[in-house]
Amino acid sequence: MDNKKFTLWNRITALLVFLIAAVTYLLTIEPTASFWDFGEFIASSYKLEVGHPPGNPVFQLFARFFTMFRMTFYIRNPMNTIQNVCVYSASSTKIAPIYFAVAEELGRLFAMRGINLINGAGSIGLMAATSDACLAAGGTVTGIIPRFMVEQGWQHTGLTRLIETETMHERKHLMAEMSDGVIALPGGCGTMEELLEIITWKQLGLYLKPIIILNIDGFYNPLLEMLQRAIDGHFMRAEHQAIWQVATTAQEAVELLYTTPLWSKDVRRFAAL
Q1: For residue 197, which of 182, 185, 186 has the smallest C-alpha distance?
Q2: What is the pLDDT of residue 91?
Q3: pLDDT for 162-178, tens place per residue?
Q4: End of a domain among 75, 109, 131?
Q5: Number of independent structural domains in the chain
Q6: Is 237 exposed, middle or buried (0-12, 13-18, 19+ CB in 10 A)?
Q7: Are 138 and 192 in the same domain?
Q8: Whose CB among 78, 117, 185, 258 lies 3.0–4.6 Å from 89's, allowing a Cys bridge?
Q9: Hey, how many other C-beta atoms are within 10 angstroms of the C-beta on 73?
Q10: How far is residue 211's CA from residue 45's CA, in Å, rounded to a whole number?
Q11: Which of 187, 201, 146 is nearest to 168 (CA)?
Q12: What residue ranges of the chain have pLDDT lower than 70?
């Protein structure tokens, strides 16, 4: 092989090695740490990984030792991964137009963000309004509904995907399991029961994702006051107030999905007072 061919293949090989190394680095980099020393040391100490060569092992062991005694109820994440969101909402058709307007705006925002809407597959009320707006804007909707409701003809027939369950309990479990977060629109007993149950699951460390209460026109003010009264009366810990976030607009609710800190399973140690 002459000198020119050798130089050419040498450069091609070097480029391939560089690309493989670069891709490997970018795919495995810590997603929430800075590119400078602080983020690197925090991440590598917590996970007992190798940081700066030669690794500063004594410093990292000390750092890891002290993190074992922290009492955090949640893990801060500057940007959650949101692909599927469950929306609790009313099936009533006789409520004020403002609720339908916000529900439709929420459906359109889901479509714009590429978020798959998960709901109870209702064919009327706010459930249908959110679904129809999302679908009309090019989004996708997964409806989950018990078989007895399908037998009554209550299901939305135009959804992207319809899942039938045997029981209401299975329905609620699947809605939570498939979701990266929950938004509660105004609703009646069914909506409030779903909201309070998912709050309880999060308090027990069974659900770790964001829970957003979309408080349209002050609808949820009495419930929020009751929850605050429970905290003030020591029926709940003050830290439990971080279980839910409150939004007053559809845009704010969607933004909170991405920025609300993820909950930690460590909370199970403090679920009971």
Answers
A1: 182
A2: 92
A3: 999 999 999 999 999 99
A4: 75
A5: 2
A6: middle
A7: yes
A8: 185
A9: 17
A10: 30
A11: 146
A12: 1, 29-56, 59-60, 62, 64, 66-79, 267-273
Comparing CA positions, the residue from 266, 267, 257 lying closest to residue 179 is 257
Helix (H, G, I), strand (E, B) or coil at 256: helix
Quote the domain boundaries for residue 257.
84-270
Name the DSSP letter for residue 269.
G
- One-letter amino acid for residue 234 of the chain: H
Q: Are residues 250 and 204 in the same domain?
A: yes
Q: Which two tokens stand for residue 116?
A: 């798959």
For β-strands 211-214 and 245-247, DSSP reports them as: parallel
d(C-alpha 224, C-alpha 218), whole Å:
10
Q: Is the dihedral of CA 148, 151, 154, 155 positive or negative?
A: positive
Residues 218 and 112 placed together within one structural domain of the fold? yes
Residue in this structure with the two tokens 């839910």, named with its chain if needed: 244
Q: Are residues 238 and 150 in the same domain?
A: yes
| Residue 177 tokens, joined | 């399991």
Cα R_g (the chain), whole angstroms: 24
E-only strand ranges, the chain: 74-75, 84-88, 116-119, 141-146, 161-165, 182-184, 211-214, 245-247, 262-263
CA distances from 141 to 107, 163, 250, 254 (A): 9, 11, 17, 16
Residues 147 and 196 occupy one common structural domain: yes
Pair 64, 90 in one domain: no
Q: Which of 75, 107, 127 is the last residue of a domain?
A: 75
pLDDT at residue 44 in the model:
67
Phi, psi dihedrals of residue 155, rounded to the nearest 5°? -80, 150
Assess contact for 142 and 84: CB atoms under 8 A.
yes
- Neighbouring CB atoms inside 10 A of 227's CB total 20
